[in-house]
Amino acid sequence: MMNINEHLLRTFEARPGEFLSGEELSATLQVSRTAIWKHIERLRQEGYEFEAVSRKGYRLVAKPDKLDVEAVLGRLHTRVLGRSIHYMNEVDSTNNVARELVQQGAQEGTLVVAEQQLAGRGRLGRKWHSPKGKGLWMTLILKPRIPLHFTPQLTLLVAVALCRSLRQITSLPIGIKWPNDLLIDGKKISGILLESSAEEENLNYVVAGVGIGVNLLPDDYPDDELRAKATSLAIEAGHTMDRSEILVAFLQELESLYDIYHEQGFGPIKLLWEALSVSLNRPVTCQTPKGLAEGTSLGIDESGALIVKLQDGTVTKWYSGDIQFSS
Amino acid sequence: MMNINEHLLRTFEARPGEFLSGEELSATLQVSRTAIWKHIERLRQEGYEFEAVSRKGYRLVAKPDKLDVEAVLGRLHTRVLGRSIHYMNEVDSTNNVARELVQQGAQEGTLVVAEQQLAGRGRLGRKWHSPKGKGLWMTLILKPRIPLHFTPQLTLLVAVALCRSLRQITSLPIGIKWPNDLLIDGKKISGILLESSAEEENLNYVVAGVGIGVNLLPDDYPDDELRAKATSLAIEAGHTMDRSEILVAFLQELESLYDIYHEQGFGPIKLLWEALSVSLNRPVTCQTPKGLAEGTSLGIDESGALIVKLQDGTVTKWYSGDIQFSS
């Protein structure tokens, strides 16, 4: 059964551009005019915009950009990934919700996607800005059949799938910065945060958090600092994009690479990562436990570590951290 | 302030072997005779045994073996490990309690130890039999400063520390079966279960569960199957042992190896593990994802995997599983 909000929306949508009087709406929906007014206010809080003119009534002028989950499920041709979608308006962090779901027995491929994250997290304990309706803020539950020490390979796999699907849809020159940030012209458009849980050498599960800045405009960033470092697909392409199309493309690409990974191992993924990377064969610096290190990035190893030739000629590996490109 | 149970126990302990009348106890503790009777019943439920003779009163004949936490803290010379001890009478699993504590912000070195586990868990989803007062059923919270993919080294480190401390105290011929079971003459006296949580390549925490069969006697095993596979220090040594002494020795040995590991890496730990292992240079079989495999164990690698020469001459690695010795 439709609730009154939905019924009200359908009524407006059936007569686009028209003013509907409180009297007429009250008669159609069989509720009082005061109730109509309350529901219009509620819809306004959800992002719907109404014009109200006395004696004429209300007119729907704008709808919030809500992810169309029905459309996603209708177009999606995956076997496992995204077959179950938990769509939420607002969460603290989709990774937290996914971790709770997995404790309750959620299956592999379960997707949590939210219009807004109030406490979205990025790598290295950083905040992740996730404004309402402007991006894809989501987490996938994965239960890969690999030993624990291969887990870092997964984070590279997710970055490759995301980079390939976004390039395909947008044709933008997107590259991967080690280990898993996606950049356009040095500005970040997406980040990945994998959290894993293991018992001895057996991986129990991974929650793979992915944030994509899809339709943010310059005003959607809270300050100049973030505006200088981050960008969105809409800013780069010059027009807004359909988030459901991006989600479908990403899930399909990820499932296909995930299957290849289980069948053939890390080899093909490593090749793709290196081909899409903007981090290789150039001078880089990194804050390591031993202080600031400087060198030239040569490649990645089987554990996803960055192989770096330091200035004194020795070759070392960086396992985690935030690299900067020096020139 | 002492509660009535404690007061009652002190009164009995002050006059060992004597009968104390309900009347006298009632006068001493300033409570009714009915209250005395109720408290004696409560103590009986905790494992204290009283002889009751009409007209003479009650006599304390046996006390349950409770771990003396005060004695542990008094003797312990560690810097971090076991400085905070959560002692519990009964838990589902000490690993579960430790995981909850770490979520609430518990520090590295926090120890959970229980007299009894109702749902103790072992490797590969197995049950772990943890009867009341008969063993050390415990979990340590560790926050090692190592990348995620080194986690399997920790499980070997814990096995080495446990093996060395038990050998030192008992002089029994205890060996390590890959990866981390402790055996005497092929029978298991202890098991280890590490659970880890990571964010990307950074280990958040490890809960290291350790079960040691200290004072179990043959009747303490639920069935012949377990009796045939498991043993205890008391059975092997021919006398019961002080659990607090074993706990202190283990924590001190573990802290000292843990410090060496952080300073010098896995090298020294690997040497010790190999020296204490009963798994090397002998025919072994293992149920692997590809079926039952047979070969000769050659050593372990940096990731804790067992290096095995298969019957066809190829050398492979087993990352997890349960090896059997063939002959």
From TrEMBL, chains A, B:
Q: Where does biotin bind?
A: 93-95, 117, 121-123, 188
Top-level taxonomic group: Bacteria
Keyword set for this entry? ATP-binding, Biotin, DNA-binding, Ligase, Nucleotide-binding, Repressor, Transcription, Transcription regulation
> What is catalyzed by this enzyme?
biotin + L-lysyl-[protein] + ATP = N(6)-biotinyl-L-lysyl-[protein] + AMP + diphosphate + H(+)
Question: Is Transmembrane helix given among the entry's keywords?
Answer: no
Which residue intervals define the domain BPL/LPL catalytic in the entry?
70-262
| Assigned EC number | 6.3.4.15
- Asked whether the UniProt record includes Oxidoreductase among its keywords, one would answer no
The UniProt similarity line reads: Belongs to the biotin--protein ligase family.
**What HAMAP family does the annotation carry?**
Bifunct_BirA (MF_00978)
Question: What is the protein's name according to its record?
Answer: Bifunctional ligase/repressor BirA
